[in-house]
Design a protein that fits this description.
three-stranded antiparallel sheet; twelve-stranded mixed sheet; alpha/beta
Length: 391
């Protein structure tokens, strides 16, 4: 009995065509205008003149750099990237933080845009977010919900237009940068629920005074910057409580109000610990690493603090032989503005200790140095005479 030949269904060519098209789509996982690495999960589309989100991005990317483009709106376009951890949308034309950002994000960098307000829904449900950078925008108001940003550790709101310190900031914050704003006051209770705050940057604002006990609840505070503010030092009634707090706090205060010295607060003569202010503001990721001819727009990296005089980093060194103590003060500062100059200075102060020098030993190390330096020319002269006599 002969078998009847099986006839392929008419739909097979169509299915084959769909399969081929789908295969091409799967292979095109890196947009042609971007560069991808690490299995196409790290995508750099910075400085490409993009006005819209590139197509063909695979859904399991971990890192997306869209900085230095012309993108105006990303609402709802990133919500399906469930594995995205770092998003850099700095220096675009955004007027608000994009709606529907992935909840898996750890790091959002949105500096250098035109964002004027931060609403509570902008950061709602971002339990995993650890770093939020909104510096160099036009922000005047920020509504934060601390219980929805429970893992947020670093918040950068510098170089905006805030008049007062935002309230209800997330309680796990360790760093807050509010420098270079128009801040005039800190409302009572604004800082009461920040027990882990370690670094607080308030320099370059418009403070003339602060309310009493405003910093008293910051038990973990280690660094505070207050310089470049027009403090009303003649108003003793309102400024004395701040000066008294600075004398008692274990935190290091840079830019002490109404003082000529730049640093006060903690006693640093017996410690070698040094600080670099506000090391949070970071440049957009890889914006010029691939295109040498591309000139990245200048932006401030807050890597230091400018006070009226140089910041002093002090170390105490003991010299055993001479029984001396050498107090070395190495001063230097870096501003947080793009066109600043950096200054380095160094001073050495020698103070005699109470320990007496042992008999027979050199009175100081400087005498030993001069003695050896004098003996070298004498030996050179004798060797020259001997050689000439032999000839």
């Amino acid at each position: 009995m002969k078998r009847k030949p099986q006839i392929a269904p008419a739909s097979m060519p169509a299915n084959l065509l769909l399969l081929l098209l789908f295969g091409v789509r799967v292979l095109a996982i890196c947009p042609p205008m971007c560069t991808c690495s690490r299995g196409h999960r790290v995508v750099d589309c910075s400085a490409r003149g993009l006005a819209i989100l590139p197509e063909s991005l695979q859904h399991n990317i971990h890192f997306l750099n869209l900085s230095y483009n012309r993108i105006q709106n990303l609402d709802g376009l990133l919500k399906h990237f469930d594995h995205l951890r770092t998003l850099d949308i700095s220096y675009n034309h955004l007027h608000h933080l994009p709606v529907g950002l992935p909840r898996a994000l750890w790091d959002i960098r949105a500096s250098g845009n035109y964002i004027r307000q931060l609403e509570k829904n902008d950061t709602a449900y971002h339990w995993n977010l650890q770093n939020l950078d909104l510096s160099y925008n036009l922000l005047e108001r920020a509504v934060l919900i601390n219980n929805t940003l429970s893992n947020l550790q670093a918040l950068n709101l510098s170089h905006n237009k805030f008049w007062t310190v935002p309230t209800n900031m997330p309680y796990n914050l360790e760093m807050v940068d509010l420098s270079h704003n128009y801040l005039l006051q800190i409302l009572p209770g604004s800082l009461d629920r920040l027990p882990r705050l370690k670094r607080f940057y308030l320099h370059a604002n418009r403070f003339t005074s602060l309310s009493k006990d405003v910093f008293n609840q910051l038990d973990d505070l280690q660094l505070l910057t207050l310089g470049d503010n027009p403090w009303a030092c003649e108003d003793e009634e309102n400024i004395n409580h701040l000066l008294t707090w600075m004398q008692k706090t274990p935190a290091k205060v840079l830019g002490c109000p109404c003082y000529t010295r730049p640093t006060c607060g903690e006693v640093h003569l017996a410690t070698r610990r040094t600080w670099h202010s506000a090391a949070f503001t970071e440049p957009p990721l890889g914006a010029d690493a691939r295109r040498p001819g591309h000139r990245v727009p200048l932006h401030a990296v807050t890597s230091g603090y400018l006070s009226k005089s140089a910041q002093l980093n002090v170390a105490l060194i003991n010299t055993s032989e001479a029984g001396e103590q050498v107090l070395i003060l190495g001063g230097g500062f870096h501003t947080s503005t793009p066109h600043s100059l950096s200054t380095q200075s160094s001073t050495t102060i020698r103070t005699r200790s109470t320990k007496k020098a042992q008999p027979g030993k050199a009175h100081s190390t400087s005498h030993q140095i001069h003695k050896h330096s004098f003996e070298i020319p004498i030996w050179s002269l004798l060797c020259t005479v001997v050689i000439c006599g032999a000839l």
